[in-house]
Design a protein that fits this description.
Elements lengths: L1 E10 L7 E11 L4 E5 L6 H8 L7 E6 L2 E2 L5 H11 E4 L11 H6 L9 H14 L15 H13 L5 E5 L7 H16 L3 E5 L3 H4 L6 E6 L2 E4 L3
Parallel strand pairs: 3-8, 3-9, 6-7, 7-8
Antiparallel strand pairs: 1-2, 1-4, 4-5, 9-10
């Protein structure tokens, strides 16, 4: 579904502190599979996620989505691809304090022009599916870490994306909540979504839900043991 060819990514290019976060990545991400990127801090996992999800562009190399080269598309087209194709679960959740769970969930869907009532109904449905309907009107700062993550998952799903991207999704959760997240992930995988995540948590990368683990170090791929 997603193909990366000779991807390199530089920061501060041309300056004394130039740094290559990715150095020659060739990777094929299969549709409807769960793929985990594993590696230490600084290995390039998150940078690779941002390129796959059209949040940033490679310095060199090509990205293909469903057979189409999207590397050189204007930003307005990349924005539309992000909105239609991808849902994001960030490590810090990035929820907006002062807004209720429902309002946080529907924010990414406003640019689609769908009626607010339709968006609220969909958000309610998503929250109910994750057993959080009773907290729909609570401001997100009043929610526990696990509840905030479920809100973030609902937000990622509001536009019904084909691809779900999660950056270290269990990093701020205890073992029990991390296990709950993996249960949710299993359900999402069963729906046929393509899931790409980063983690060095054994509970995640050794889970039966994860079908392929790709190891990274120093901006390079090391192996794909499974």
């Amino acid at each position: 579904m997603i193909e990366l060819h000779s991807i390199r990514k530089a920061f501060n290019q041309g300056h004394d502190n130039e740094y290559w976060a990715l150095d020659g990545i060739d990777l094929h991400i299969e549709a409807k599979k769960v793929t985990a990127l594993r590696g230490p801090s600084g290995s390039g996992k998150t940078t690779l996620l941002t390129i796959v999800g059209c949040l940033s562009r490679p310095t060199e190399g090509r990205v293909r989505l469903l057979g189409e080269d999207i590397s050189g598309l204007p930003e307005r087209f990349l924005t539309e691809i992000r909105r239609r194709r991808f849902g994001f679960i960030f490590q810090q959740f990035n929820l907006i304090r002062g807004l209720a769970a429902l309002d946080n969930i529907i924010l990414p869907a406003y640019p689609t022009g769908r009626p607010r009532r339709e968006l609220l109904d969909r958000a309610e449905e998503l929250l109910a599916g994750l057993k959080l309907g009773h907290r729909r009107h609570a401001k997100v700062e009043w929610l526990s870490g696990g509840e905030q993550q479920r809100v973030a998952i609902c937000r990622a799903l509001i536009n019904d994306p084909e691809v779900l991207i999660a950056d270290e999704p269990t990093a701020n959760l205890d073992t029990h909540l991390a296990g709950e997240f993996m249960g949710i992930l299993e359900g999402l995988a069963a729906q046929g979504r393509t899931i790409l995540l980063t983690s060095h948590d054994p509970l995640v990368v050794e889970s039966a839900v994860v079908q392929r683990v790709v190891d990274m170090r120093d901006g390079k791929l090391l192996s794909s043991p499974r």
